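Objective 1b. Sequence-to-structure analysis of Phage tail-like protein.
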Amino acid sequence: MATSVSYPIAKFRFKVKWEGLSKENEIGFTEVTGLDYQIDVIEYRDGTDPNLSKRKLPGMRKFSNVTLKRGVFKGLRDFYDWIDGGDAASDKSVVKRKDYRRTVTITLMDEAATEVVSWTLQNAIPIKVQFSDMKADGNEISIDTMELAHEGLTVSYI
């Protein structure tokens, strides 16, 4: 009798896409962190409530910033054009930047490259870019980091 064994999905195969990113310039990342949110608790007790404890009600959701890390490649500008404003780089006004807020999708895949889970960030904006430090006697890959703030996170099991 054959039995089907199911294993948890490994976290090393994933892709990141955002609006405005062309397929031929798709960017790979080495690490994605911050895919979480929490719900604040509202404590409430009415003066006539016979219980001697407060009720706990769900409140506002809070989303963590998402951090993307990638190696530095010659000629790839999409990563930096987003925070710099792209074509609107001469006008640093956030209000006048076209397509500044974007939908970002992070997708986890299994070993066969089948999409399993995706996380979608709504209205994501880059808030920080950290360039790699340099060391004359170092032997590491140059890694740049971009931090994104967003207004919502949805999870889809495919």
